[in-house]
Amino acid sequence: MLQDDSPDSEMNIAREFWKTIFNGYDINKPNKVLPYDYRETVEIVGRSGFGGTLCSSIEDEELVCSMLTLVQEHNVSMFQLFLTCYHLFIYKLTDDNDVLIDSITANRYRPEIEYAIGMFLSFFPYRLAIDPNMSFIDLLSKVHGNCVNILQHSKLPLPEILNIQYSGNPRMDRTSSTVFFFETDTYKIDEVVLEDAVCKFLPDADRPAHISKFDLLFSVKHDVSDTGQPQRFFLLWNYSTDLFTEKTISKMDKQFRHLLNILFSKSSMFDINQQPLYELSLFSC
């Protein structure tokens, strides 16, 4: 299928799609946008790889309920809602409205493999051009459309996508400086017993994070309790200690949670349906 050169083949249609995604994108920009503490080490190939982790939670029932209601009303997924928020966050943090974030998709682009058993997860870049005059709901709709299109063209292997993005440039080791991951935790398993061995699961915050493959990995876990307890979200920041200090990541976490409150709290004065994004600020927290 990869060798099919006909213009209307699935792979060539996917190649043309990814060409439009990266058209006009500055491939040297990803190393400049994040608020690095040690900017001089960004371009160093042989970084130590050491990482740090910071974890927080969103347990305000009113805020969580507001977000759950929003995804139902607009027929989007919670992944798409948080991806929209993270795109907006990076835009506000860096003043760069052409945002590229890597993420992981289920990659079940055909109905016949939707319920197939197996690992179909794939890594894809999500590029979003943000118009400061648009509303948050318009931005959410745009992200939803992007996600649908990327899923439809996700059959193209990542190395080919990177080759399209970099057009032969030797910097093909990554696409963006930040990665977003979302998961839903619908049940609780504290331990697994295998004959005489007992394997226990560590909470995310307790897992050692000695290695950081990316500059910044932002993960959201949606805790959907089956015990009658309110739903909540866990935010996990895994960062390269060659590039960031814990103080900077802690500030980013505070700003992101502040952004969620501005967007979804009932007490917020910001109108996500009408007000333009340029009126939203992270820096009043």
From TrEMBL:
It comes from Didymodactylos carnosus. It holds the Pfam family Condensation. GO terms for cellular component: cytoplasm. It comes from the Eukaryota. This is Condensation domain-containing protein. Residues 11-267 form the Condensation domain. GO terms for molecular function: catalytic activity; phosphopantetheine binding. GO terms for biological process: amino acid activation for nonribosomal peptide biosynthetic process; secondary metabolite biosynthetic process. InterPro entries: CAT-like_dom_sf (IPR023213), Condensation_dom (IPR001242).
